[in-house]
Write a structure and sequence with these properties.
5-stranded antiparallel sheet; about 25% strand; Structural Genomics Hypothetical 15.5 Kd Protein In mrcA-pckA Intergenic Region, Chain A; two-stranded antiparallel sheet; globular; single chain; about 120 residues; alpha+beta; 7 strands
Length: about 120
């Protein structure tokens, strides 16, 4: 599946270690609890066989926490946690990046605020 540039949603969620088993991932997907953003279009994933591609954004809530990630890899297997973390990156809200800093807020890279000299 990875050769074609896509992977089933349930398999990817399992390989990325969001779920302990593929069947749990499939049930979660089929309940329609995942939002997919691809090419600026948002849709709900409701079939576990729905393909995911690199660059897709996923948003879902589990264990009382909202998770938003971008698919950065498809994976070849369910590997260790370090390998699984390479399959996704935290999703960045473009609106948060576009906001200017508030007046009086410390600038980025200002360090700990102590004088260097």
């Amino acid at each position: 599946m990875s050769d074609s540039g896509s992977i089933r949603a349930d398999v990817w969620l399992w390989r990325a270690r969001f779920f302990k088993s593929r069947s749990l991932a499939a049930r979660f997907v089929e309940e329609g609890r995942i939002r997919l953003t691809r090419d600026g279009t948002e849709s709900r994933i409701d079939k576990s066989a729905r393909p995911l591609k690199i660059g897709d954004g996923l948003v879902f809530a589990m264990r009382g926490r909202l998770t938003a990630v971008t698919v950065t890899g498809l994976g070849e297997r369910r590997g260790p946690a370090v390998e699984a973390r390479n399959l996704y990156a935290p999703l960045v809200d473009p609106r948060a990046e576009a906001l200017p800093p508030e007046p009086g807020a410390p600038s980025v890279g200002s360090g700990s605020g102590e004088d260097a000299g």
